[in-house]
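Supplementary Note 2. Why include the ligand at all?

Several targets in our set were suspected to adopt different conformations when bound, so apo predictions alone were not considered sufficient. For every target with a known small-molecule partner we therefore ran a joint prediction. The input for iron/sulfur cluster is given below.
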Amino acid sequence: MEHLNKACPEVSWVITGTCNFSCHYCSTEKEFLEYNDRQASEVAQKLISILDQTDKEWHVVITGGEPFVVRNFHEICHQITQNHLITIDTNLSLDKPIENFIQTVNPSRVRQLYGAVHIEERAKHESLTKFVNRIHHLKKHGFPLKISYVLEPKLSVRFWDDHQFFKEHDIEIVPKPFKGIMEHGFRNLKMEYYDQKTKEILREFAKTKLKTTVSVTGVQCNSGKDFIRVMPNGDVKRCYNATKLMGNVLVDSFEFNLMAKECDVAICCHNGLKHVEFKPAEREFLNAIMSLKLGEFVRAKESLETGLKLDPNFASAYINLAHIAIQERQYELASTHLEKAKMLSPDHPTVKHHEEKFKMGEFDKIYFTNTIYFEKSRMM
Ligand code: SF4
Ligand code: SF4
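The joint prediction is reproduced in token form.
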């Protein structure tokens, strides 16, 4: 089973936009709601042939929509797993396709099945007992499973009851931080989604990686080389948030990047950050954002101060130190940090906004920033 953990290049394949659930927070692009089984098979054939030609073992993460709604999905998985590994993001709700999968796919070629509870939507479709039985059935056949629970803000009040229910059935559920609702092609992640109760739950789960959205435009990123995202129509993008296309597998117009390239995308989210070649100061800044989202000011301050020792010209780090100082009611210190940010980046709208709000005493409007670089000149 060692090979399951080794690092390998990754494809995220959105096999379909269709799903039998309709969670209100679903981020599936509307244009892919109309899927077509024939197209999924064609994309699979082309994709497998492209991956085989690289002579590398790829980790193909299949997502949707709901992958198991694709007809003959088990056959597609069987073909991919001849030379590559798979992971599937699924709501684990469809008995027949799952049974076909169990009978066809070698579990030792499956790196992970990520089953999501989607508690409110599931209640409309089936009992939790059915879901629990399905999980145990897959486990019995040797498939590695992780069960997640999207921590949509209003669910924080019932999370522990649901957690207990699954625990009594020998299943551990892990909260998945809510990433916001899709608006105009982007997830709108509002800070109020992370209320006190939600933060407490997330802190309880040390294993939970807080997925976050960060603006890292300008950093060197290996996506496009070690990672690609393939859409249901065969389009290939560099990563989750890239808007430019690299080509399309169905028309043979696609080539991998040969080296890391500068990120030219406004917002990076999901797992995109793991492909970035962060400098040490940038890494500290990122750690600070994660801590700020959990309200862990001491830890955030430590990361920002370490980052500034490594790179004293980080205007955005001073903005975040000012935010922390305000939370701690140290207004003079906040003013010093804002002055420093202004000195380093006088024209940036966030710096101007914060300076103005500070003068007006509107301290609650001095939020933290998740933009790494304010100045283009520093993206080198
Ligand atoms: S189960 Fe997943 S793909 Fe389906 S509606 Fe819910 S979030 Fe969207
Ligand atoms: S840093 Fe994130 S958004 Fe930018 S190219 Fe890499 S994966 Fe994409």
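The chain has two domains: 2-208, 280-378. The chain has a mean pLDDT of 88. Comparable summaries for the other entries are listed in the accompanying table.
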